């Protein structure tokens, strides 16, 4: 006779040996998902914390399941056919006479109201999917929470991707007191204290801790492994050694599963679950520096073994297994590898002997993109191509670096750097563009047309930064090479000659040089260089006092830009006409043209032209005796100038000085400084919005606003959170129920837009130092 024992009310549950850090948002998401769906799958890369999140979420919801929450650990299961047996064993069901199947498990569960957690399903995915489908069909009160690197792929499944922990932006400057508000750093600090009880985040180690967490992509397991090394290394030493992370992060928890003891073992486990095509694509996509799209993957990763037709299905498989992460940016879908996963893929690629060949294809793909952008630059797709190249910027850098380290790459590198001449300028990356040009030229290239074109582009970029000595050296070599090439190839050299002459104050000669070269460029078909020549002619004519030539040059440029649907050079034409209108005593027309120019620049990152337009608007305000507005606009131009990183007024400093003196005299020094600061002490976005005459987007509410949004009781509880009290301790302190304390803390998190108690603590500290109205 069969004797099936009745399981206890509550399932066997692992004790948490370390504190649970963060994940409040994710816990809330799991709770909501299980309230509406009977099957919820937590997916994500290995080590991201799926198991810990599922365990905590299930335990928190235990009161909602009178028949218990039950954990089924599948990680150590090698025989896929034993999945049903693992479930009944976890449920505490003992029956020696039954051969367990999905159907017999369902009969045992029947109509019990319980939550089943199936942990680590990826290596027994097919059987798990069939078993879960059968259980859900036959057990109406059952709910199932799954953790897996790949979704089960059955009807009714609610998929919740688990992301890495939040890290500070590398460009942000976060106070040590606020670092713990970032979940990744809070975890590192918590685990560090287990190794070094006196560990405290401060100015010295906070930067290193941030760097460690970013380099490890916010992956909890990797962060915990790194923290263990604090027994013998400082945070700075750990950060420096992370280039060889697979040898560093090897001291894990000996009681954990083998694949959780070292970072390499963890990723090897993921690799073993991939097909041969998936392993191949994983290795090949490691050459991408940041993210990539499907077109990029097909161009770079396909060959006779992994064909272009295979790429989409293989890519899908890697996304399903959480090796690749889909990176949505509002355009075509893009994909990326976490840095740790990329490094492992790069190791696989090196071992395969294909690294050079795949990186050459990556270089050639970047070259094709760059030259396509150059071909379509002066036209209606200009802003789209600019955005595309901005998206691929990290890949362009990687390709250029490869060109400098690969014997056959110099020609490609020369062509990429030259094709991106205007891109460097429009992106506000003139210094970077110069650096690439200089490195490639110093590396040595053939004395051909490609080198001549790069010399001209490099000298032009140098002159944009008023670096006349460096430009003169480049121009001298370009003249020598130009003697052996046709006139069209060498024609842009005259632009650099004219600009060089203008920078030395000889505007009359600069106008003559421009007038000489413009007809040649007009009929050469090289619209980017021709439009540059027209801008230069207009500026030099303006400084020479030749209003007729100014109007002719800028109006020709305006007509040409509008004919081709081009925006960037059109903005310079409008600015140039605006300056001339102001000089002719037409301030209103000048302001209109300046703001039209600013509107066109919104699709680009050319802070130089933004700043020129803001400066012109300051002159206009001075002319109209709106001196407070003028002072504020001078401050606005300064804000933009800081972003541009270069002087805005190489040529027009006399106009600036004259208008500024008038404004300062009219307002007085103290009032001028106040108005100037109003324009200068703002973000770049606010500065440009003000110059455009548009209200800026609403900034984050001042710190005191959340204070007023919290009730008196909530502020009291926030202070107790700051003191480190648990919900139970808060309840005892305030003589309220623990459930009420939990509800208050949850409300505080929602009102402040936070995700963790540590963020409340940081806010309470800083808010305590902020004066509030009674």
TrEMBL record:
UniProt GO BP: regulation of DNA-templated transcription
CDD domains named in the record: LuxR_C_like (cd06170)
Segments crossing the lipid bilayer: none
Gene3D superfamilies, per the entry: P-loop containing nucleotide triphosphate hydrolases (3.40.50.300), Tetratricopeptide repeat domain (1.25.40.10), Winged helix-like DNA-binding domain superfamily/Winged helix DNA-binding domain (1.10.10.10)
GO MF term set: ADP binding; DNA binding; protein serine/threonine kinase activity
InterPro entries hit by this protein: HTH_77, NB-ARC, P-loop_NTPase, Sig_transdc_resp-reg_C-effctor, TPR-like_helical_dom_sf, Tscrpt_reg_LuxR_C, WH-like_DNA-bd_sf
Domain HTH luxR-type: 703-768
Keyword Kinase attached: yes
Transcription recorded as keyword: no
Protein name (record): Non-specific serine/threonine protein kinase
């Amino acid at each position: 006779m069969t004797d099936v024992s009745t399981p206890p009310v509550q399932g066997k549950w692992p004790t948490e040996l370390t504190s649970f850090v963060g994940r409040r948002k994710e816990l809330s998401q799991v709770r909501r998902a299980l309230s509406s769906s009977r099957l919820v799958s937590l997916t994500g890369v290995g080590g991201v914390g799926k198991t810990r999140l599922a365990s905590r979420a299930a335990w928190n919801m235990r009161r909602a399941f009178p028949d218990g929450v039950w954990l089924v650990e599948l990680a150590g299961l090698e025989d896929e056919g034993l999945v049903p047996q693992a479930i009944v064993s976890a449920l505490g069901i003992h029956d020696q006479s039954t051969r367990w199947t999905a159907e017999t498990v369902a009969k045992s569960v029947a109509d019990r109201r319980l939550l089943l957690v199936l942990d680590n399903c990826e290596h027994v995915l097919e059987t798990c999917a069939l078993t879960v489908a059968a259980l859900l069909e036959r057990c109406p009160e059952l709910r199932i929470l799954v953790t897996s690197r790949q979704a089960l792929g059955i009807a009714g499944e609610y998929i919740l991707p688990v992301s890495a922990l939040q890290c500070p932006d590398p460009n942000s400057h976060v106070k040590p007191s606020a670092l713990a508000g970032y979940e990744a750093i809070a975890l590192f600090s918590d685990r560090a204290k287990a190794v070094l009880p006196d560990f405290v985040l401060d100015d010295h180690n906070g930067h290193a801790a941030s760097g460690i967490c970013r380099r490890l992509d916010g992956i909890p397991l990797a962060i915990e492994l790194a923290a263990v090394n604090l027994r013998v290394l400082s945070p700075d030493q750990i950060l420096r050694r992370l280039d060889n992370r697979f040898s560093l992060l090897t001291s894990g928890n000996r009681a954990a599963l083998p694949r959780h003891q070292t970072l390499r073992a963890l990723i090897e486990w993921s690799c073993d679950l991939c097909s041969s095509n998936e392993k191949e694509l994983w290795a090949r996509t490691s050459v991408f520096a940041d993210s990539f799209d499907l077109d990029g993957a097909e161009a770079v990763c396909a060959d006779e073994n992994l064909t272009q037709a295979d790429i989409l299905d293989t890519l899908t498989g890697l996304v399903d297994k959480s090796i690749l992460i889909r990176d949505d940016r509002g355009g075509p879908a893009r994909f990326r590898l976490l840095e740790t996963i990329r490094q492992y893929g790069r190791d696989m690629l090196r071992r395969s002997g294909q690294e050079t060949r795949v990186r050459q294809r990556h270089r050639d793909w970047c070259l094709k993109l760059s030259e396509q952008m150059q071909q379509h630059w002066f036209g209606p797709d200009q802003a789209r191509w600019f955005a595309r190249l901005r998206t691929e910027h990290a890949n362009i850098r990687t390709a250029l670096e490869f060109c400098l380290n690969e014997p056959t790459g110099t020609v490609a590198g020369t062509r990429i750097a030259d094709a991106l001449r205007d891109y460097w300028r429009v992106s506000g990356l003139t210094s970077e563009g110069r650096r690439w040009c200089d490195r490639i030229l110093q590396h040595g290239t053939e004395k051909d047309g490609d080198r001549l074109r790069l010399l001209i582009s490099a000298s032009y970029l140098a002159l944009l930064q008023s670096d006349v000595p460096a430009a003169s050296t480049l121009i001298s070599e370009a003249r020598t090479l130009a003697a052996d090439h046709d006139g069209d190839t060498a024609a842009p050299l005259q632009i650099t000659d004219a600009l060089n002459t203008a920078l030395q104050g000889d505007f009359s000669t600069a106008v003559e040089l421009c007038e000489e070269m413009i007809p040649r460029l007009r009929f050469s078909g090289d619209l980017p260089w021709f439009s540059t020549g027209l801008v230069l002619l207009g500026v030099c004519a303006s400084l020479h006092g030749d209003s007729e030539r100014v109007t002719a040059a800028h109006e020709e440029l305006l007509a040409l830009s509008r004919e081709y649907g081009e925006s960037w050079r059109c903005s310079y034409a409008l600015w140039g006409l605006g300056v001339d209108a102001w000089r002719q005593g037409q301030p209103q027309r000048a302001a209109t043209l300046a703001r039209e120019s600013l509107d066109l620049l919104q699709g680009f990152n050319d802070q130089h032209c933004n700043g020129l337009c803001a400066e012109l608007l300051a002159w206009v305000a001075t002319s109209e005796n709106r001196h407070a507005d003028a002072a504020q606009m001078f401050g606005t131009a300064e804000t933009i100038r800081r972003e541009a990183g270069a002087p805005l007024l190489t040529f027009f400093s006399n106009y600036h000085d004259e208008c500024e003196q008038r404004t300062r005299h009219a307002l007085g020094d103290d009032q001028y400084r106040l108005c100037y600061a109003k324009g200068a002490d703002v973000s770049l976005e606010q500065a440009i919005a003000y110059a455009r005459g548009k209200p800026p987007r609403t900034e984050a509410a001042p710190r005191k606003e959340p204070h007023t949004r919290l009730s008196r009781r909530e502020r009291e509880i926030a202070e107790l959170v700051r003191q480190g009290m648990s919900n139970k301790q808060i309840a005892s302190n305030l003589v309220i129920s623990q459930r009420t304390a939990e509800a208050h803390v949850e409300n505080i998190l929602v009102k402040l837009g936070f995700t963790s108690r540590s963020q409340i603590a940081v806010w309470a500290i800083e808010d305590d130092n902020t004066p509030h109205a009674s």
